Fold each of these.
Amino acid sequence: MDFSFYFDLPLWLRLVLQGTAVILVLFPIAAACSMAERKISAWLQGRPGPNRTLPPLLAWVPGIWVLQKLGIFQLAADGGKFVFKEDPVPGHVNKLYFIAAPILAMIPALTTVVVVPFGAYLDSAGKIVPLVLANVDIGLLAVFAVSSLGVYAVILAGWASNSKYPFLGGVRASAQLISYELSMTLSVLPVFLWINAPGGQGTLSLFDVVQFQSQPGFWGGAWFVFTMPLSAFIFLVALFAETNRQPFDMPESESDLVGGFHTEYGAFKWSLFFVAEYCHMVIGSAVFILLFFGGWNPLPWVTLTDTVQALAHIIPVATHPLFMGILGISIFLVKICFSIFFFMWVRWTLPRFRYDQVMNIGWKQLLPLSIANLIAYTIGIALLQK
Amino acid sequence: MAVIQVERKPLSLLERTYIPQIVGGLRTTLRHFFKPNVTLQYPEQRPEISKNYRGVPTLVMDPNGREKCVSCQLCEFVCPPKAIRITPGEIAADSPNAHVEKAPQAFDIDMLRCIYCGLCQEVCPEEAIWLQNQFSMSGYTRAEMVNNKAKLYELGGTLPDPHLKWDHKKAAAEHGNGH
Amino acid sequence: MSTDIFFYLFAAITAGSALAVVLCKNTVAAALSLLVSLVGVAALFILLDAFLLAALMVFVYAGAVVALFLFIVMLIDTYGGTRKPFKKGTIVASGFALALLVTGLATLAQRGALATPEFAGNAAPLVPVGASLRAYGEQLFTTYLLPVQIVGFLLLIAMLGVIVLSKKFEGLEDVK
Ligand code: SF4
Ligand code: SF4
């Protein structure tokens, strides 16, 4: 197989194709997350979850019951419902912002994916090449920057709804997201201090982080979760807060705010908020895995390149870029799925924090902890790299 | 009663980080994840209903297949929300049960009105109306929610009651000592 | 040239929304215009290949500072407040500022272009300082060390001021 024809296409066309492909993958994943959420909640609570919907036209297909039991058609039915349902815009809302908010929610959610690498392959020269839409030097900073814009959707939705509960949800969201952004940023600094040895070019690229975790040797192959467990923990907690997941889902908080910022929303606009939330979750998990769990490397101390070369003894096509790319993406996706499962698992384990507890944890515990962590690692790294 | 003062122990540092508790909680929920479901697949699998359950009011037959209701209309009068409507009727003279004289011509219970109070069962002198273990009533129209006589007997079935008082009465009358 | 089109587009967005910040009666709308303006500035940075500055701009200002603005604006609910007439001092100061601006613009128009600023050390930096982390960091810690320290100090003073203003000194009788 030869793919040179693809690289002969004009750059803009390739970028458009790649971008569309990524969104076409991301969108269904986000949608599937909503069904996974329902199924996993059900299984954790000892019930089967949605398992009945089946289009009569497909009933004859043998083995279709597996999909039926997994609720796949329920997902399609729900999606269809959101499209065809009446989309109410209450009379008292600020129309422009009310309609802009769900759109604003989608933009950062889909933009961050641009700088997230999701696989790698060896080119003909034996050099490892990342699979990413834009391999920029400031990768992580760009993710943080764009995803920090996501809060405006929540604030705007809360404010434009012009009623009490959404408003409280919006105010809470703005305070919470800022509080945890600090700890999140501080927690990843040790990682970049470590990979940017003195005299290097200086990089914030997520691809380089993964490459750093796939070096030979005991310390080279160790994922950062082993060398920097505290950073990983702080990042994870902040990630829960940033994606508004339980136990930090203050902006929604059904028990005291009805529906939080989206109380006044319905139908398609509401579903946009949810797709955006799941996109954030997927991207957040992806970044977490890239930083601390070795990206597309299957196991700690076992890199993707090693795996492919070992496989090449059995199946010769293993080193082919296409095979390697797909293998890398699959490993990465499996890790993301597990991480999303973890999000849902925690959701049904921990009760929601009270608002003052959220603020206390953010400012009085997580922030000092992350600063101490940063200082400790700075000193350690300075001594080690001297 | 002795009052025991329990000393509230201060949390240890490890406990204050919440982490052991969170891990314990995660273990519990994961155990539930792999446990079998505790729910029933409702319309196909039905739960065991206790014999004492008082669900939808129904009409019953006696073991000989005679409808027990004699359309005395006591239940109609006692029913607080006026859910019952009875049209009394005569039993044809050539029927083997002619001596019972009356049976309902029509018997409707509007299940949108019924409050499942059970007064009809309590007041019935013939033990003809019973609240049984039928617990699910649903329909697409109001008319569907009105149980007519045929439906009521279908739901009610037969009461395995060995007394057969009307048969005894008939036998006694044939022996000539009926009063 | 496509870059030119983009420059004019983003410049128009930036300037227009900056104007809207001042003109909007609704405070939330004004804060949102500020957000758009900042994102526009970030886009202009990208056109200059200063990706790092653009990301920092979005991250710090658009992502955090404006969110705080909105938070405050929502908390103190500024609807329907009647504006006090301007004080004399304000009018004089704004007149002075306007005069400065006009003079500056006039000078610029007369000269035709801004004088290219001299970069310390190298005469013609090929890579813009804002593009790579390393260059940016090095400049911060060498050439611009003093300004950075001074700005940091100012922020510290401001923070202390806020603490003093917001803290209730209940134990101190003479303060009351
Ligand atoms: S059900 Fe009983 S109470 Fe009602 S009419 Fe018949 S015999 Fe009388
Ligand atoms: S249960 Fe009560 S409400 Fe229902 S039909 Fe009997 S008497 Fe009427």
Amino acid sequence: MNYSLKQSLLAVSVILTAAFTYSCQSNPSEKTLPILGSREPVERVVNGETIVDTVYHQIPDFAFVDQDSQQVTQETVAGKIYVTDFFFTTCPSICPKMKSQMLRVYEKYKDNPNVVLLSHTIDPAHDTVAVLKDYAERMNVTSGKWHFLTGDRDKIYDMALQYFVGVQEDAQAEGGFAHSGDFMLIDQNRHIRGHYHGTEAADVDRLMQDMDILLKEVQHEKK
Amino acid sequence: MRKNRFVTGVLGLMALTTLTQCFTDKQNQGQKLYAQHCQSCHMEDGSGLRGLIPPIAKADYLQTHRDELACLIRHGADGPMVVNGIEYNKEMPGVHTLRPDEITNLLNYIQTNFGNKNERYTLTEVKGMLETCPVPYE
């Protein structure tokens, strides 16, 4: 791993830890998940009174293409929770492990309409729609549930930052790219609610527990 | 006399421990090489990745292509390959730096672990296989 990547990963973990400790203090009785990332107080005036709202880090709008050449945007995940990661199909190091763990998540939630999986390639020059289609078909996963996304390189790298996932082209790294094996859990309002090591089975167990908690929240909001 | 017997006993014990040490070292070398070069793709339990990376655990390929495995480890693989009835087609990189004795230990490790109970290889056998690899490397 090279220096700047390490630095950004460090920064990210500091932010996450801070956010985590902060939100842990509230509401200890019922288990809820923290909202990760920056928060800003925003003042607005209603009927002459100043109200302070907290604005949380939110994943911005996006548009990528999946293995079926379908556009995948914020509309695709509207009102749903999703798990996202960054990988590339020719990655020899951590990706096979990440994918075998993501398959566990897929198998558990494949029939749940409120869950979507988004895997972004960080090597869009190689990972075209056709390559991703072959990849997904061999794994025997349906595109409606698990989207493998490709698109403009810079837009993908910018999105990784939005998700706090470290990615970088790096000739020194195995396969030519350095990236972290994080799985991020995003809620129905596009807030980041959890961060897991996608290569560790125990942490992916924790992800699935958190997804169940979040799904209750979705049910609640939909009522 | 008694001292002599004692010395012989100690020597014998020492010889025995070195021998078993040697044996377990070889076993460990296979395991270490697997962890170092193969595990990231074929997984800790040899299960591979569904549809994309074939399993080592209970793979028929280990028996049906026994004689090609030394070259496969050194030079990698490409193109379609059928393992336990499922077609795979993805590149596997070779590990050019492995010596014949290391390849022997690695092969014996995968042939006798992950639920596999296949025939072991001798060093001479593996050397012979490596000499006739279809793709000359470098």
